[in-house]
What we know:
The complex is a heterodimer.
Chain A (H helix, E strand, L loop, with lengths): L5 E3 L4 E2 H9 L5 H8 L12 H12 L18 E2 H5 L6
Antiparallel strand pairs in A: 1-2
Chain B lengths: L3 E6 L3 H12 L4 E4 L15 E2 L8 H20 L13 E5 L2 H15 L6 E4 H7 L9 E5 L3 E2 L2 H14 L3 E3 L6 E5 L2 E7 L2 E10 L5 H7 L7 E10 L9 E4 L2 H6 L7 H6 L4 E4 L5 E4 L13 H14 L7 E12 L6 E4 L6 E5 L5 H18 L24
Parallel strand pairs in B: 1-2, 1-11, 2-8, 4-13, 11-18
Antiparallel strand pairs in B: 3-7, 4-6, 5-6, 9-10, 10-11, 12-15, 12-16, 13-14, 14-15, 17-18
Helix pairs in contact in B: 1-5, 1-10, 2-10
Amino acid sequence: MDDDIIICRCQEVTKSQILKAIADGATTIDGVKKRTRAGMGLCQGKSCQRLVARIISEQTGKSMEEILPPTFRAPVRPVKIKILVDGDKDD
Amino acid sequence: MTEYDAIVIGGGVIGSSLTYYLSKLRKKVLLVEKTDLCSGSAGATDGYITPHTKKPGYHLEMALKSCELYETLAEDLESDINLELGLHCGGIQACEDEMQWELISRNAAELSKSGLELYMLDIEDARKIEPELSPRLRGALFSPIASSVNPMRLTQAYVDAAKKFGAKVLLHTEVQGLLFEGERVSGVSTPNGSFSSEYTVNCGGSWGGVIAKMAGLDLPIIPKRGQIIVSEPVAPMLNTVMQSGIYPIIKYKPELIQDERIFRLGLAFGIEQTKDGTLLIGGTRELAGFDRGNTFEAIEAVLKTVSRYIPAILHLNFIRCFSGLRPHTPDGLPILGKVKSVPGFVMCCGHEGDGIALAPITGKLVAEDLVYGEPSFPILPCATERFLTNREMGGG
Lengths: 91, 396
């Protein structure tokens, strides 16, 4: 895989940026995320998470299972704020 | 011979700042972090630098000193710290009704005594600065000195710069106990070995109370949970960093709050737009122990509140929420400096929601305290001794 390839498409984070984050001490998906913003975009890591985990695995020798899954937070997909705010109104 | 001049416990924004300022003064520093940089509150917060939300007097003056350091910080660190809207975007405190307006006006008069320039604007004038404010509001306080920064970039930038000065950083290394030579704290023990130092500094943030216990100190640092909601990235829509008029009341006079839910959630709002375009919408101040989960009740309540002030958010999607712990102390001031009764042990935590705003000045002053014995701005009001019993202070 070319190091210039984009791993996180939402935030346009390249493989080389992810490698740099790992060299800096990141050993988890969250660690990479906080250094590079990979996984912080609209899809919240749905596309890049496994790729990031694989690169961490290759670099650190940790198995995919060992690499902690990132913290999952609501909502699972984007939700219009109005739906929450007006949720209890009958309209 | 000790290995280090100082060991800093905690790789959050405060520990990173202190590591930088100590290293810059040519001290040999080891930063020890239990998991990873920004794994606590520095990675779970918005990035307000808003002096007008501090307590009038000393606390505000400290924040203003910190703002002076922010002026050249990106240059000093040779790094982009992502000042989201620039260093002088200004801050708004929006008032929904006459009661908030009165309280904020009175507070503004107190704050201006320290030389902070503030304006109380009717809603028509406030909307000239921040057009997205609802016309139904009473008005707003405007402070030209206010901005926001990316807390994770800031922490990382401090650490990178400190490393250039020779600082050592040990991640994924939990401090399990302190080393003692008689009464004196002489270092830390970790699964990766013991390290000795002249000073051991507690930058544990919300976990600062746990580390203080290792030194035999019982300090009132209580985590308060702040929940924050992230919107999808959108085109620039906010010009300033904003909070609601109820924010200083939640922070400093919660006993004035009559609504049970607002009191329990510590429900105020703050909103900022990042360089990336996302809105960070806060927030709460809840007593929930060390639980960093999110609750539907809080998310719904925050969004309902904010939409009264900034109706445009109703049409945006939210993509995530997160929460972080704010290390609260009874008087709202951090706990800083050498602990007289425990030589070698230094406190540097308890900033509640002011960690980002006060990180530069905190690191600088505590570094000066350790290196010169006298900081360039007094930290006596933040002394540990204000919370110690006679016994802990070494008395009878």
